[in-house]
Amino acid sequence: MCARNFHGGATKPFIRNGDISIAEFKEWFPKEFLAQLTNFYSCGNYGDPAFAQDCLEIFQYVRDANPTCRLALHTNGGMRNEEWWSKLAPVIGSVNHSQVVFGIDGFEGTHELYRRNTKFSKVIDNMEAFIKAGGVARVDSLVFKHNQDNVETLEYFLLGKGVQKVNFISTARFYDLDKFAVQDLDGNYEYDLEPATRSEYKKVPNKTLDSLLDADVRYEAISKAIIKPKCMEDQGIYVDPYGNIFSCCLIGSDYLEDPLEETLPIHALRNMTAQNTKDMLKNIGVPNCKDGVLDEDIILWEHMGDYWHGDSKCMTCVKACSKTIFNTTKHIS
């Protein structure tokens, strides 16, 4: 269940199936470009990279071009078969913390409540095959009310399977909701997901974010923001399945997403933020791999820095790369 569908059901209209073939990948990413990378990480905004038809071949191509690059993949692990995962293990390897991160949210019967259309036993079989073939596996596990009492047991179980580390994650997806209705493909109600109630995993909504809907409050907060762009620090880019190149995955999401139904004030703020990004991208442009830009020594966004300073700051950059609005406390600083 992710941003690609309505409450775990029907796929949202803005989603277009995108699958980069190995032929396209070789054309878009010359070996000379790949050779200078330190990190190649595949994690879908709206899908799972392991579903890509040529996923294994693409990772092999990257590894051949750069034997020391960190390779990493984030997946629910519910697709393919054990043989495929065994083949992936030596390709990913372990150099420079290379790994595969599996999303596992409980045991059979609870895992599937959020990880829709997956089967716990198949995920475990695939993960074990990957580990036995020499792969390094980590697990990210979202904590809800329905699985919070199994956290310690799940960690013990997964470490026993050879997982290097289990990272339990508090989810903020509920914000001010006491439950989240899950739907089938026809939009019919199936069941509810509820937020964790254990103190260490409970997310308290930052209600003061609602005040950002006031133009004066928002202007003052954004004006005070000091953006330290992570994309500059990491010297990284995000490429979507259509070849579009962005400074990060958050900007890429803003570019594609349709407006949310505004049932909460936070939804209106989200729509405002996404539109702000779209307006910025109209000015700075969206380069595409199909134009051969990664085969040239050029600046992708000559005017991106204009949106990190002054009165025209990118709201998504403020949210992700400053401590002004979305910080770890419960107030706007």
TrEMBL record:
GO molecular function, one term: 4 iron, 4 sulfur cluster binding
Cofactor(s) the record lists: [4Fe-4S] cluster
Keywords from the named record: 4Fe-4S, Iron, Iron-sulfur, Metal-binding
Annotated InterPro entries: Aldolase_TIM, rSAM_sf
PANTHER family per record: FEMO COFACTOR BIOSYNTHESIS PROTEIN NIFB-RELATED (PTHR43787), UPF0026 PROTEIN SLR1464 (PTHR43787:SF11)
Protein name: 4Fe4S-binding SPASM domain-containing protein
